[in-house]
Amino acid sequence: MVANVQIIGLRKTFGPTVAVDDFSLTVAEGEFVALLGPSGCGKTTVMRMIAGITDPDQGQITLSGQRIDALMPERRHVGLVFQSYALFPHMSVARNVAFGLKMRRQTAGQIAVKVAETLALVDMSSYADRLPRELSGGQQQRVALARAIAIEPRLLLLDEPLSNLDAKLREQLRDDLKALQRRLGITTIHVTHDQSEAMALADRVVVMNAGAIVEVGTPRDLYQTPKTRFTAQFLGHTNIIPARVQFGRMITPWGELLGAAPLGAGAVQLSVRPEDLGLAACDQGAGHVTEVTFLGAEVEHRIAIAGLMLRSRSSGRDAPVHPVGTKVVLSFPADLHHLSQEPAL
Amino acid sequence: MKGRWLSIGLYSALALTLLAPMVVAALWSLVDPKGGWFAPDIVPRAISLHHWQAIGLDRSLLNSIGLSVVISLAVTALSGLLALPTAYALAKIPFRAKRAIEMFILAPLIVPGLIVGIGIGYLFFRVGLAYSVPGVILAQTIGTLPFMIRILSATLEAIPADLIFAARSLGATPFKVGLHIVAPLAWPGFIAGGMLTFVSSFEEFEKTFIVGAPQVETLTVKLWAVLGGKVMIFPNAAVVTFIVLVPTVLIFFLAERAMRNDGALAAGMGKL
Ligand SMILES: Nc1ncnc2c1ncn2[C@@H]1O[C@H](COP(=O)(O)OP(=O)(O)O)[C@@H](O)[C@H]1O
Ligand SMILES: [Mg+2]
């Protein structure tokens, strides 16, 4: 029932705009993959091509070995949740959820059972007779999800399903969505421009930029060992430090990093997360604090050093606070990371 | 709140454009022929149903009413049938020449009916459609079609494309999408367009007269006959005027009710 997905060389242009180019991706059965990228990078276009709403210019889409890219959307058996929810405004919640089952010619009895079951799954049983306009955004979102999963799709596509909700609700629905997906085991592709949402939900994240895939990996790998500057900066904040490797020593703009394991060769770009960058007051320090920001859970220091502007974050009640102007030395993690796919500066 | 102001607006328009002429027409239709109605008097000296009775006895008037209703129904149905595919194309298919085509379709709206009528009249005479009911139906449809296309395409444009895609991905064929999604969401526009078409057909004169008269005698043609004979029979004309105005008043009333009660239908009416 649940399918694996194989996409090869997908391309779509709108006039002069190349919306998606050379997009290839494999998704395992039951896997949860997030497409992450800035607005306008082609995420929706990919989803629409998989669902059959937009025809690709080139490429293949295969579900469990069956080519679907030439099938009409109604033949693909793919569940789709739109950013706008796209609930049918003239139908009650129950009729919205029943729609796909009715199109599949199930009996009234079967439909009633399935609708009740699905509404219970998304915790909307008591709203079955409401019209969509009588629901809040979060409730509409749940109904849209119920409508898509009621048909037991081979693949579930979610296009920014949480982006119209406020922050608190978004977090809660995110957790519910994850639990539901694990429970049903539906292969899912989830589109978002929110990196924390992508990392919280997905088994694997596909980072996109300007119509193309930049990097694919688990949330942990992409966050800790990104290969590109784009990924490093799109997933949270990072400090990019140009450096040189000479005779097994790491040379930064302000001097040698003592004790650093040699990595790469010649010019490299180091990527150090603000929470990994340590800070200590020292009169001989090469850097000085230019700004201190209290963020609640964390304190952020900005440090000017050898013409670079770096950030350091520390958390907890006892996190030290250094006033602006304090001379500081920086400490780096033992396993330094550099952006291996980034051309040297 | 919004509903109330709409109602007030509609009723004011109704009073100005319909009620005033209707009161005058009503008074004229009730003038007692023995008393008459002359200059300084604000109301006639004596009231009688004489003219209503006279007209009621006139078989040809009943025939005209029947003919007008049949023609207007046919024009409404034909306009709907012809407008739907055009409106659909205008609303959904993005082609470059769209604006030009829109202009072309809507052109008859700004050309006076008489000019269109003369053109059509000549053409229909040549092809043998003159003086026939089908000829009149066709001539009127040419006039009402632009309205119908405007209203229907505005209605269809208002349906979000995502609804249609959602239905398709849930397993609905294009036909099922039309049946279960587009039709239920578009019917207020269809009703609004239908009512407007019916009224404008019922009241149409120029094209009907040029193409159909004297053989095809609709109510408006009849009204002309009553008004334009050797002597002008004002009270008789008033009675016919009254009957011509009935559907308009009815539809004004329905539209007002719709705005007050049904959001969907009000939206449809908004497209008038
Ligand atoms: N129907 C369309 N016509 C023209 N350009 C389009 C259309 N759909 C998308 N685009 C363009 O393709 C690019 C990718 O759009 P989209 O897939 O919606 O991005 P995302 O979902 O990542 O924000 C954008 O530059 C957008 O303007
Ligand atoms: Mg999008």
Q: What does this entry look like structurally?
A:
The complex is a heterodimer of chains A (345) and B (272). Chain A is of the alpha+beta class and 345 residues long. Chain A is built from 8 helices and 19 strands. Chain A has helices at 43-51, 93-103, 108-121, 137-150, 167-184, 195-201, 219-224, 229-234; strands at 5-14, 17-27, 32-36, 58-63, 66-67, 78-81, 155-159, 188-192, 204-209, 212-217, 239-246, 249-252, 255-256, 266-272, 278-281, 287-294, 298-305, 308-315, 327-331. In chain A, the strands form 4 sheets. A 6-stranded mixed sheet of chain A has the order 6-7-8-3-9-10, sandwiched between helices. In chain A, strands 15-19-16-17-18 form a 5-stranded antiparallel sheet, with no helix packed on it. A 4-stranded antiparallel sheet of chain A has the order 2-1-4-5, covered by helices on one side. In chain A, helix 2 packs across helix 3, helix 2 runs parallel beside helix 4 (137-150) and helix 3 (108-121) crosses helix 4. By secondary structure, chain B is mostly helical. Helices cover 77% and strands 0% of the residues of chain B. Chain B is built from 12 helices and no strands. The radius of gyration of chain B is 22 Å and the shape is globular. Chain B has helices at 2-29, 50-57, 59-92, 98-106, 113-127, 133-157, 161-169, 174-202, 206-212, 219-228, 234-261, 263-270. In chain B, helix 10 (219-228) runs antiparallel to helix 11 (234-261). Classes of the chains: A alpha+beta (345), B mainly alpha (272). The A-B interface holds A 48, 51-53, 72-74, 76-80, 82, 84, 86, 88-90, 99-100, 103-104, 147-148, 151 and B 160, 162-163, 165-173, 176, 180-181, 184-185, 264. Adenosine-5'-diphosphate (ADP) is lined by residues 14, 17, 19, 37, 39-45 of chain A.
